[in-house]
Amino acid sequence: MAWSKDEERMLLQIERHLVDEDPRLAARLESFNERVQRREGGRRRGDPGGGAGRLRRRPRRSTVVIMVSWLLIATLIATLLIMVLRHDAAALPL
Fold first, then answer.
1. Which stretches does the entry tag as region Disordered (predicted)?
2. What is the rounded CA–CA span in Å between residue 25 and residue 31?
3. Which of 8, 14, 45, 60 is the most exposed place for a label (fewest CB within 10 A)?
């Protein structure tokens, strides 16, 4: 989508005002924009980013470690509950 000249002028004014008011925030935003552009890599602006040609993104290592940890904790809790319930059921006289 193309910006009109009036919208571009307003955005430039906002950008200048931001840089004058808070240069640290402006530097952080610029750094963020650079990281986003690097992450997008070979994608072109016209590409919607989806579709058949898009590569599937792999989860980060920390996400995998957290999920495995939760799975292990859930398994241990389930095992302990089964052991306790079976022991209590065996101890109850019927």
1. 36-57
2. 10
3. 45
